[in-house]
Design brief:
By secondary structure, the chain is an alpha+beta fold. It is built from 11 helices and 10 strands. It has a 6-stranded mixed β-sheet with strand order 6-5-7-8-10-9, covered by helices on one side. It has a 4-stranded antiparallel β-sheet with strand order 1-2-4-3. The radius of gyration is 18 Å and the shape is globular. About 45% of the residues are buried. The chain binds flavin mononucleotide.
Amino acid sequence: MLQFNAPITEIIRRRFSCRNYQHKPVSASKQAQLQAFIEALPPGPFGSRPRFDLLAATETDSKSLRGLGTYGFIKSPSAFILGAMSPSEYDLEDYGYLMEAIILYATSLDLGTCWLGGTFTKSRFAKKINLSNSETMPAVTSLGEYTATEQKRQGLVSRTAGAHLRLPWDELFFNFLFSTPLFQNEAAKYTTALEMVRAGPSASNKQPWRILRHNQIWRFYLRRTPGYRKDLIKRILDLCDLQRLDIGIAMCHFELTARENNLKGKWIVEDELAKHPNPLTEYIVSWEAQS
Ligand SMILES: Cc1cc2nc3c(=O)[nH]c(=O)nc-3n(C[C@H](O)[C@H](O)[C@H](O)COP(=O)(O)O)c2cc1C
């Protein structure tokens, strides 16, 4: 069970992609707390166990990000969270879920973070974590103390939960059919869990999560951005499907919020839905609420 030292909704509201950091190392005490959190991580919701490690950044690390498929300039990160995963059916969703849990924990320690998706498998980051031939590294996270400007931005983000940069509810959450939006009052006890999905990070802020409520079952779908995967593949060989990481992140926010609100449930894969893939709106997983 993941343990945080502040209410999860508060931590999720404080998180944003911080791309500028102070020129100073993360304190030994914060490093130790992060390491302890990483070591105590349970398996992902689908049962796979990616491994993660904290790496102190060197001067050249931000420059070496160029050419690895990441976007945005990351200025003076103090550290990185690296990860390695072995192939399995839901490896990317588990990786996204667990990396996001680490990010939320780092946020609770007042550290700025930014997800960086790219092709790290042959990079110097891969050497640092002794990546084996059968493992891949779909994304890393940069980390450090906020600069004063970033701290101000965080204030705005927490007040609005990033809502001004997100799709409206009626484009993300649905009742029985994708043609019927689910309104906030209809989501009842799950309103906050859905709001926390909406506040989550996603690659290029595409927000590909779609959730369809079917009585006590909440079905998570991936609405692929047309051309997104293809373009990237054209650009960089061997790039993973970043939008599957986004689903893992959404699952993390949803489950942690539900549990904090004493809403019981478990993840299930409904085979009938999984068997009939729709290329643009792909069923991934369901949360079965238990009363
Ligand atoms: C899987 C993934 C990959 C990402 N890759 C990058 C990246 O390479 N460079 C970057 O600057 N931001 C990256 N981001 C951050 C997103 O751009 C950011 O989450 C999104 O714009 C929403 O903004 P917010 O995180 O401030 O709420 C990534 C996010 C995710 C979830």
